[in-house]
């Protein structure tokens, strides 16, 4: 998401970076470019006007034009305005009671918005945090909605409350009673959606709301619906009341108008974003981090957090030692490739690396070659992975055959790996080299 708008904002940031002197004309031109970028991203017109007016007001004063580093000062103003636009508080906070009481989360939205999958993703997230969630199949309109939730619940090992009933209010009431009795501390209620807003739908959700008194009412919006998502959210807020928004399909190639308009127009924070189809692909929405990505500044904090999910401190220290002693082997390399896959797609990781946006694209990284390398290493014995020097011509021929590659490709991998080991040794031992590499990455 935000690819188009991010490309334009990154260009603006680059044009101002390091400028010792800027004029009001420079600023006016940049702000005009920002306005066009926001409008093309389908951002609400009222939101665009507010953003542009505040940016111009702050940027054309003496604070910027006569500052020591006017270029950086202007970029900071744009960044601050973007954070404010997205919601400058800790949006991802979910209002939950203690583990001894049952908290209720009511999921709302139109049909096809991703409510059911998002409910399961939330349950998986809470379970990982040590809570005891239960899902409620109260969507009795969409065919197979109950079965879908049951299948998802089974995947994440979370119970799903379902009844042979045509009354979703009764199902929600009975589910709450069951959750309290069985000491589940979070109840996530999946409700019916419609193809469009109607009174029947709103009345049903109001009754469920009154029956379970939810602690959170989360509106699930499809990021691909653009400005329409804002209009629908306003309706839900007026008729039922929402405490926060979850944007599904955030990993799509949509323009981002909904994400950039919701907070300002509806006045409710975006709490989570769906960033993929897997049940673990639900991230907290951090306005400052998203703003940083839009401006092409990367997101080191999220990158580190994703790395920490796949490698612990002891393992990191062990790898550091292996690099410095030049004992990093092909098994270690295979482990690193697996960890990279767990961290997410290449394009998502590129967005998080400072200075990489616009300089490195997914096309620059040969993912097919990475798959071939993985297949080659997996075709080796453990002894060969830990000591690649024993790979003579006969062994290389066997490995090539086993991996469906050629001897030339095996040779190329081994040469590349040898160079990589030398680079890693330099990086691990030489602080100046580390600083030089980080500077080159824009950090």
Write a concise keyword list for the protein shown above.
alpha/beta; 8 strands; 443 residues; disordered C terminus; 58% helix; Rossmann fold; 3 domains; 434 Repressor (Amino-terminal Domain); Four Helix Bundle (Hemerythrin (Met), subunit A)
Can you characterise this structure?
The protein is flat. Mean pLDDT is 81; it is low at 437-443. Strand 6 (244-248), helix 11 and strand 7 form a beta-alpha-beta unit. With 443 residues, the chain is an alpha/beta fold. It has an eight-stranded mixed sheet, sandwiched between helices. The two termini are 23 Å apart. Helix content is 58%, strand content 9%. It folds into three domains: 3-86, SRP54, nucleotide-binding domain (Four Helix Bundle (Hemerythrin (Met), subunit A), Up-down Bundle), CATH 1.20.120.140; 103-294, 3-Layer(aba) Sandwich (Rossmann fold); 300-440, 434 Repressor (Amino-terminal Domain) (Orthogonal Bundle). The longest helix has 23 residues, at 407-429.
